[in-house]
Design a protein that fits this description.
Blueprint lengths: L1 E5 L6 H12 L2 E4 H10 L3 H12 L5 H13 L7 E4 L5 H13 L6 E6 L2 H9 L1 E4 L5 E3 L19 E2 L6 H15 L3 H6 L3 E5 L4 H12 L1
Parallel strand pairs: 1-3, 1-4, 2-3, 4-8
Antiparallel strand pairs: 5-6, 5-7
This protein binds BIS(adenosine)-5'-pentaphosphate and magnesium ion (MG).
Length: about 210
């Protein structure tokens, strides 16, 4: 099973991917996570990407498609993939078609998390992750069971993304509307699009995804 999770910043792509990984043993391929790792490691890609990401704009199609190509090449053919935050432009959607063919895969579903943009700024500005294992939390919507302690690994250190401020989020949303939303009709014409109510509680969104995948 290979799926794309599509939705604007804060729609819940990362949150739901983590659950699908746990439940189905799929692999999450998040270009955002890959780019943040490159920024942290100060690789040539990371150095190039940092300022673009801090502004909330999209990095070049070629960079992200190369990242995805490398990940697919290293992956066991039986492991299903969740594409999280990729493709994000028409050019990337074309590249993905080529990459899937190259690696002997095909798309099963393109799942759009349908959300109300007004709620997304609150979701994003309240988001934080475990500095140790990357588990995701939210000041209001997804707190650890014991305050200040990661549920998954017990770490007490957390971090916030530098692009999770209101101004950058507005740019990220505008980029989504202008460049990413237009790829939906392409998948629609292939009968691949499934819509899920991303405004429901986290658990309910997972249940809707299970109904599609299960
Ligand atoms: P990326 O990392 O992909 O960011 P994004 O698309 O802006 O999406 P987010 O990660 O912010 O949101 P999410 O949908 O994963 O939400 P989450 O589950 O965390 O990209 C970052 C940057 O990298 C881009 O701006 C660009 O510069 C670059 N980039 C990446 N990919 C690229 C590409 N393909 N091409 C070009 N450039 C690229 O949820 C958010 C919060 O809400 C969490 O705190 C969570 O706990 C909470 N939450 C989740 N679901 C719910 C719910 N149902 N109810 C209540 N709270 C919820
Ligand atoms: Mg994410």
């Amino acid at each position: 099973m290979n799926i794309i999770l599509l939705g604007p910043p804060g729609a819940g792509k990362g949150t739901q991917s983590a659950r699908l990984v746990d439940h189905y043993g799929m692999r999450q391929l998040s270009t955002g996570d890959m780019l943040r790792a490159a920024v942290k490691a100060q690789t040539p890609v990371g150095i190039k990407a940092k300022e673009v990401m801090d502004r909330g704009e999209l990095v070049s199609d070629e960079i992200v498609s190369d990242l995805i190509d490398a990940e697919l090449a290293a992956l066991d053919a039986d492991t299903g993939v969740i594409f999280d935050g990729y493709p994000r432009t028409e050019a990337q959607a074309h590249s993905l078609d080529d990459l899937l063919a190259k690696h002997g895969r095909s798309l099963d579903h393109v799942i759009e998390l349908d959300v109300d943009e007004d709620a997304l700024v609150e979701r994003i500005t309240g988001r934080y992750t475990c500095a140790q294992c990357g588990a995701g939390y939210h000041d209001t919507f997804q707190q650890p069971a014991t305050e200040g302690v990661c549920d998954k690994c017990g770490s007490t250190e957390f971090k916030r993304r530098p692009d999770d401020n209101e101004e950058t989020v507005r740019t990220r949303m505008a980029e989504y509307r202008a460049k990413t939303a237009p790829i939906l009709p392409v998948y629609e014409s292939r009968g691949l699009v499934r819509r899920v109510d991303g405004m429901a509680a986290i658990e309910d969104v997972t249940n809707s995804l299970d109904a599609i995948l299960g």
